[in-house]
Design brief:
123 residues; mainly alpha
């Protein structure tokens, strides 16, 4: 009977020690797994968000490049049209100015010829 009680006491101590060690081991495992899953989840989402951000930035850069090229083409077309319009306007203004000078010169020649003719006749 004494041996049975002793064995029961040893069993209770071993059982308690095993239960405490196993509980501690499970808590450590749970903590490690929780930290691992949290870190993996954080890293995964951080990577996904970083990739999404990089893709969005590349998309914006591409869109900006397209808009820049388009605006340069439009600017070039407007510049050519404006330059052509200015040249045509300058040409027409110069032509009108030369016509005015030509009429004035012809009028001057006509009046000086009249004056010379009258002077040669003796008034």
């Amino acid at each position: 009977m004494c041996v049975t009680r002793f064995l029961q006491g040893v069993y209770k101590v071993v059982y308690k020690a095993f239960t405490m060690c196993f509980t501690w081991l499970l808590q450590c495992f749970y903590t490690v797994c929780t930290v691992f899953v949290r870190e993996a989840f954080t890293i995964f989402f951080a990577k996904v968000l970083q990739d999404c951000y990089n893709a969005f930035i590349r998309l914006l850069q591409g869109f900006s490049k397209v808009l820049t090229t388009f605006s340069q083409c439009v600017l070039h077309c407007f510049y050519k049209a404006f330059r052509k319009c200015l040249l045509v306007c300058f040409y027409l203004a110069l032509r009108r100015l030369l016509e005015i000078f030509w009429r004035a010169f012809r009028s001057f020649l006509g009046s000086s010829q009249t004056a010379l003719t009258m002077a040669s006749r003796g008034f």
